[in-house]
Design goal:
Layout: H1 20-35, E1 42-43, H2 44-51, H3 65-77, E2 81-84, E3 91-94, H4 96-100, H5 104-116, H6 121-127, H7 137-148, E4 159-161, E5 173-175, H8 192-225
Length: 234
């Protein structure tokens, strides 16, 4: 497989090591850039809503604006996040693909792993649909293996293939951007009914996040035009 890999911004051989909060902030920026492009880059408030979503997130977090602002400062020092200009409200965008030096497909897989925790190649392909459409599972596995075999000169592996969990048919993959993964933190595989309920909750949460982003866009436009924003429904 031939990959088109950008030159990394991180120093050659530097290992990417983020805190859990930094990984959540970065993953959320990566997600919203693809799923709600009209509201991207994100304001601090919209970013906080995305980080604290109750679905499509593992683990769940309840981050404050101060925690997110601190994470943004650290990520900007690593050239993984940029603050944009031209708006009265500060907004941020990610620079992950160039910052780490990985192709688009690898960045997508890492972003989803950062947001949703360990997953099988099949789960990653399904969860990536709104980010990038992989041709098949073998394509997903190919990029994962590239990330696992990443040389020390490029910063070392960014994912690891985990041992097969009891009762599971397939092995899951985990990211290493926060350091070595602890297999004891793995939860048991979901039963089909639980997975279906989680899928419905996931869709509802995504819609709520998109509505919040659209509401903020309308308020910003009304402010720029000097007109009163529409009243929110009760």
């Amino acid at each position: 497989m031939t990959l088109t890999t950008p030159s990394p911004v991180l120093p050659s051989g530097a290992t990417l090591l983020l805190s859990a909060v930094e990984a959540r902030v970065l993953g959320t920026l990566m997600e919203k850039a693809r799923t709600v492009p009209d509201s991207y880059p994100l304001s601090l408030n919209t970013l906080m809503l995305g980080c604290n979503q109750k679905s499509s997130r593992e683990p769940l977090m309840n981050l404050s604006e101060a925690e997110i602002a601190s994470a943004l400062d650290n990520l900007m020092q690593l050239n993984l996040v940029r603050e944009t200009s031209g708006s009265r409200v500060a907004r941020w965008e990610h620079n992950f693909q160039r910052g780490v030096g990985v192709p688009e497909q690898s960045a997508v897989l890492l972003g989803i792993l950062m947001l949703r925790g360990p997953q099988t190649a099949g789960e990653l392909r399904l969860n990536a649909e709104r980010w990038y459409r992989f041709a098949d599972i073998s394509s997903v596995e190919g990029f994962l293996e590239e990330l696992q075999d990443r040389s020390a000169e490029k910063g070392g592996p960014l994912v690891v293939k985990l041992p097969r969990a009891p009762g599971a048919r397939e092995q899951r993959w985990a990211h290493l951007v926060c350091g070595a993964f602890d297999p004891s933190s793995l939860s048991a595989p979901e039963r089909s009914g639980e997975a279906g309920g989680a899928h419905s909750a996931d869709r509802i949460s995504r819609l709520e996040a998109e509505v919040a982003s659209l509401r903020e866009t309308v308020q910003r436009l009304c402010s720029e035009l000097g007109v009163a924003p529409p009243a929110s429904p009760d």
